[in-house]
Amino acid sequence: MSKNNDEIFKNVISHAKEYGFVFQSSEIYDGLSAVYDYGQLGAELKNNIKTYWWKAMVQMHENIVGIDSAIFMHPKVWKASGHVDGFNDPMIDNKDSKKRYRADQLLEDKIARYEKDGKQDKADQLQADMDTALKSENLSELRDLIINHEIACPVSGTRNWTEVRQFNLMFSTQFGAMAEGSEEVYLRPETAQGIFVNFLNVQKSGRMKIPFGIAQIGKAFRNEVIARQFIMRMREFEQMEMQFFVRPGEDKKWFEYWKTARLKWHQALGTSAEKYRFHDHTKLAHYANAATDIEFEFPFGFKEVEGIHSRTDFDLSQHQEFSGKKMQYFDNDLNEEGKPYGNYVPYVIETSIGLDRMFLLTMINAFEEQDISTEDKKDSRTLLRLHPALAPVKAAIFPLTKKDGLPEKAREIMNLLKLEHNVTYEEKDAIGKRYRRQDAIGTPFCITVDHQSLEDNTVTIRHRDSMEQERVPADQLERIIAERVSWKNLLS
């Protein structure tokens, strides 16, 4: 990571804390590793990202509905999904530092160093050897690769490694009043299974016809041993997932459709197209026949923000087998197409986006340190160039002074605007300082009420990005703001 990128990332993290976007969880007790709280502005921005996703998925598609399934599920769900037996990371400990690492991540870091040093042949060979070892779950081979490529512990600098062991990432707890006789249940490691077990409930109650989708936003929990890069990889996180049920044989077509549709959703926010790329998986999960990641260029490199997976009929078939309940769809439409009536287990295309990663992407993309010096004066500002629809606060209302009836007039305007929008009122400090504070949290409009406002009911509206000011009638404010912050601007 270049020093410049490193600095940008550090500045975004400190900005997030200073202005009430993200705090370390339990900070007064020295924090809890890889767990974060969203502050007053962070919660607003997060909710706006959720709303954008939900509207784009559910409101804009007649054949997609949303649910909210429980975090606790029957333990057999996770047996059927493969998480009990297969949701593991290969871990290795350094005996001197007592630090634990994911073996594959140590090897990936080494591959990246080889590439940086121009040793592409070595990088390719190590990648191939690692893929083979991971595929066959050969843990001793993973350790041999770490030893043979002289990978040292980043903390102790030594190569005194333990054996590689599998570490299950699911949190478990006791379900029931008494520990004896209670059942072990898991905190869900993903939200998708809540959709699969409700497939028939939704299909029948909603009279849904294939193809159709079920969307959900919810918390998931993974006992990540290696949690790093701020809110990129957390132990408690939020997912926005949609499972799209299709006819067998039509999965490839829908996989391509959702790849294109999801990238458009990201780019509608105004992000530069060069910042995004597709990364197709060469090593597929056992249930998938195609998988791709939408990656964004963070200051620390391209990382996944969303996955699109063609999951075949694996999930529904597994739940059919473990529950003994038929997870099939009776397709009337096949007869109209000259094919016999069909009872089949649908195939699934999944789109899964990490909300916390999307939040970080949004902050990094919007963060700007701007030099606005003139010939007479050196000046700068920190700006969050958020899309107006996502901005936590849509408008700030300022009385020019704290007297002469200006606060009362400003409050009158605020009370009107807050019926539709999240707005704020501020009268402390000079106008310039107030502008800077609102720029730093991404507020698209600042409205100043002055003495002229009392005479002709006009106000000054100042635009965040251009810093231009215009005089407008106060009774036009609702329309001006509504037009700019409308979800239409993103969804159309």
Summarize the structure.
The strands form seven sheets. Strands 3-9-10-16-13-12-11 form a seven-stranded mixed sheet, sandwiched between helices. It is built from 18 helices and 23 strands.
Account of the protein in words:
This protein has 492 residues and is an alpha+beta fold. It folds into 3 domains: 3-85 and 171-364, 2-Layer Sandwich (BirA Bifunctional Protein, domain 2); 90-167, 2-Layer Sandwich (Herpes Virus-1), CATH 3.30.40; 374-491, Anticodon-binding domain (Rossmann fold, 3-Layer(aba) Sandwich). It contains 18 helices and 23 strands. Helix 2 (40-59) packs across helix 13, helix 5 packs parallel to helix 7 (139-148) and helix 6 packs antiparallel against helix 7 (139-148). The longest helix has 20 residues, at 40-59. It starts with a helix and ends with a helix. The model has no long low-confidence stretch (mean pLDDT 91). Catalyzes the attachment of glycine to tRNA(Gly). One of its GO terms (cellular component) is microvesicle. Belongs to the class-II aminoacyl-tRNA synthetase family. Its EC number is 6.1.1.14.
Assign the CATH class of the largest domain: Alpha Beta
How much helical structure, as a percent, in the residues? 25-40%
Beta-strand portion reads 25-35%
Which sheet architecture does the biggest sheet show?
7 strands, mixed
Annotated CATH architecture of the largest domain: 2-Layer Sandwich
Structural classification: alpha+beta
Distance between the termini: 37 Å
Count of discrete alpha- or pi-helical segments spanning 4 or more residues: 18
Q: Which runs of at least 5 residues are low in confidence (pLDDT < 50)?
A: none
For the biggest β-sheet, the strand order reads 3-9-10-16-13-12-11
CATH homology group of the largest domain: Bira Bifunctional Protein, Domain 2
